[in-house]
C-alpha cells in the first residue's frame, strides 16, 4: 500500500497500514482493541506495531491525531465537567478553574525589597542609634529596672 508524507512535511512517510494503526491508537479507548486485534485487522504483527510506536515520526503522528480527535470533543467534555462542578464536585471545579487559567498548581513568591534611598552614613547612624538603645535596655535590665 502506498503511504503519505508526514503531516509536518518531515522526511519520513507512513504507509497506509501505519496510518490505519495510528488512527486506531489515537482513538480514545481504541474500542478496547488489543495490539493483536489491531494487527489482525491491518495484517501486521503486534510486534510490528510496537516497533512503529517506538519510531518518533509515527509517535508524533499518533499524538497529533489524538489531540485532533479529543479536541473535536472538547466542548462536550467541558460541558460535562461544568455540570459536575455545579453539582458540587471540587475536583471538577478545580479543573474548570485551571483550564481557564484562574488557578495554578504552584505559587510563586517574589520577595520585594522596600525602596531604601538612605545613604551609607544615615544607615550607620541608624545602627549606632539602635546600639545605644540596646545598651540602655541592657543597663535597665542589669540595674533591676522593669521595662
Shape assignment: elongated
Order of helices and strands: EEHHHHHH
Question: What is the alpha-carbon Rg in Å?
Answer: 33 Å
Query: Briefly, what CATH class of the domain at 4-99?
Result: Mainly Alpha
Q: Give the biggest beta sheet.
A: 2 strands, antiparallel
The poorly predicted ranges are: none
Mean pLDDT rating: 86
Fold-level CATH name of the domain at 4-99? Arc Repressor Mutant, subunit A
Beta-strand content estimate: under 5%
Q: What structural class do helix, strand and pairing data support?
A: mainly alpha
Question: How far apart, in Å, are the first and last alpha carbons?
Answer: 95 Å
Total number of strands = 2
Strand order of the largest sheet: 1-2
Summed up, the helix count is 6
What share of residues is helical? Answer: 55-70%
The name of the CATH architecture of the domain at 4-99 is: Orthogonal Bundle
